[in-house]
Design a protein that fits this description.
By secondary structure, this protein is of the alpha+beta class. It has one domain. Helices cover 42% and strands 14% of the residues. The chain has four helices and four strands; from the N terminus they run H-H-H-E-H-E-E-E. Helix 1 packs across helix 4. The radius of gyration is 13 Å and the shape is globular. This is Pentatricopeptide repeat-containing protein at2g22070.
Length: 107
Protein backbone atom coordinates (compact mmCIF):
# COMPACT_ATOMS: atom_id res chain seq x y z
CA UNK A 1 0.00 0.00 0.00
CA UNK A 2 2.92 2.29 -0.68
CA UNK A 3 1.91 4.17 -3.79
CA UNK A 4 -0.97 6.49 -4.54
CA UNK A 5 -2.70 4.10 -6.97
CA UNK A 6 -2.90 1.39 -4.30
CA UNK A 7 -3.98 3.85 -1.64
CA UNK A 8 -6.65 5.24 -3.99
CA UNK A 9 -8.03 1.73 -4.65
CA UNK A 10 -8.07 0.86 -0.95
CA UNK A 11 -9.87 4.01 0.22
CA UNK A 12 -12.45 3.59 -2.55
CA UNK A 13 -13.11 0.07 -1.21
CA UNK A 14 -13.62 1.67 2.22
CA UNK A 15 -16.33 3.95 0.80
CA UNK A 16 -14.43 7.02 -0.39
CA UNK A 17 -16.13 8.74 -3.34
CA UNK A 18 -13.94 11.25 -5.23
CA UNK A 19 -15.37 14.78 -5.28
CA UNK A 20 -14.90 15.58 -8.96
CA UNK A 21 -16.59 18.95 -8.46
CA UNK A 22 -13.16 20.08 -7.22
CA UNK A 23 -11.88 19.78 -10.81
CA UNK A 24 -13.09 22.84 -12.67
CA UNK A 25 -12.20 21.66 -16.18
CA UNK A 26 -14.84 20.17 -18.49
CA UNK A 27 -13.47 16.60 -18.64
CA UNK A 28 -14.89 13.10 -18.30
CA UNK A 29 -15.14 11.56 -14.82
CA UNK A 30 -12.19 9.19 -15.23
CA UNK A 31 -9.82 12.00 -16.19
CA UNK A 32 -11.09 14.16 -13.32
CA UNK A 33 -10.36 11.31 -10.88
CA UNK A 34 -6.87 10.93 -12.32
CA UNK A 35 -6.25 14.65 -11.79
CA UNK A 36 -7.51 14.47 -8.20
CA UNK A 37 -5.25 11.50 -7.50
CA UNK A 38 -2.22 13.68 -8.21
CA UNK A 39 -2.92 16.62 -5.91
CA UNK A 40 0.23 17.61 -4.03
CA UNK A 41 -0.92 16.64 -0.55
CA UNK A 42 -1.89 13.13 -1.68
CA UNK A 43 1.48 12.66 -3.38
CA UNK A 44 3.23 13.98 -0.26
CA UNK A 45 1.38 11.42 1.87
CA UNK A 46 2.31 8.59 -0.50
CA UNK A 47 5.95 9.75 -0.37
CA UNK A 48 5.86 9.92 3.43
CA UNK A 49 4.39 6.42 3.67
CA UNK A 50 7.29 5.10 1.60
CA UNK A 51 10.00 6.95 3.51
CA UNK A 52 9.02 7.22 7.18
CA UNK A 53 8.68 4.67 9.99
CA UNK A 54 5.23 3.13 10.29
CA UNK A 55 4.49 4.69 13.66
CA UNK A 56 5.51 8.27 12.89
CA UNK A 57 3.20 11.22 12.33
CA UNK A 58 3.05 12.56 8.79
CA UNK A 59 3.33 16.35 8.57
CA UNK A 60 2.56 18.32 5.41
CA UNK A 61 2.66 22.07 4.84
CA UNK A 62 0.76 23.63 1.98
CA UNK A 63 0.50 27.25 0.83
CA UNK A 64 -3.04 26.81 -0.53
CA UNK A 65 -6.22 25.56 1.07
CA UNK A 66 -6.98 21.85 0.99
CA UNK A 67 -9.77 21.00 -1.48
CA UNK A 68 -12.86 19.03 -0.40
CA UNK A 69 -11.67 15.89 -2.18
CA UNK A 70 -8.25 15.91 -0.52
CA UNK A 71 -9.75 16.59 2.90
CA UNK A 72 -12.09 13.63 2.54
CA UNK A 73 -9.38 11.38 1.09
CA UNK A 74 -6.93 12.17 3.88
CA UNK A 75 -9.54 11.19 6.47
CA UNK A 76 -9.85 7.79 4.79
CA UNK A 77 -6.07 7.45 4.41
CA UNK A 78 -5.49 8.19 8.11
CA UNK A 79 -7.89 5.38 8.97
CA UNK A 80 -6.40 3.02 6.37
CA UNK A 81 -2.77 3.41 7.46
CA UNK A 82 -3.58 3.98 11.16
CA UNK A 83 -1.37 7.05 11.38
CA UNK A 84 -1.84 10.66 12.38
CA UNK A 85 -1.56 13.05 9.44
CA UNK A 86 -1.16 16.76 10.11
CA UNK A 87 -1.75 19.14 7.22
CA UNK A 88 -1.12 22.87 7.54
CA UNK A 89 -2.96 24.69 4.78
CA UNK A 90 -3.39 28.43 4.16
CA UNK A 91 -6.18 28.66 6.74
CA UNK A 92 -5.43 26.24 9.60
CA UNK A 93 -3.95 23.01 10.88
CA UNK A 94 -5.86 19.80 10.14
CA UNK A 95 -5.09 16.85 12.43
CA UNK A 96 -6.36 13.67 10.79
CA UNK A 97 -6.55 10.60 12.97
CA UNK A 98 -8.57 7.40 12.56
CA UNK A 99 -10.75 8.88 9.82
CA UNK A 100 -11.57 12.14 11.63
CA UNK A 101 -10.26 15.68 11.31
CA UNK A 102 -9.77 18.18 14.12
CA UNK A 103 -11.67 20.83 12.15
CA UNK A 104 -14.79 18.64 12.24
CA UNK A 105 -15.17 19.27 8.49
CA UNK A 106 -15.52 23.00 8.95
CA UNK A 107 -12.79 24.99 7.28
Amino acid sequence: MRNMAKIWDEIKKMGFVPDTASVLHDLDQELKERILKHHSEKLAIAFALMNTPGNSTIRIMKNLRVCNDCHSAIKFISKLVNREIIVRDAARFHHFNNGLCSCRDYW
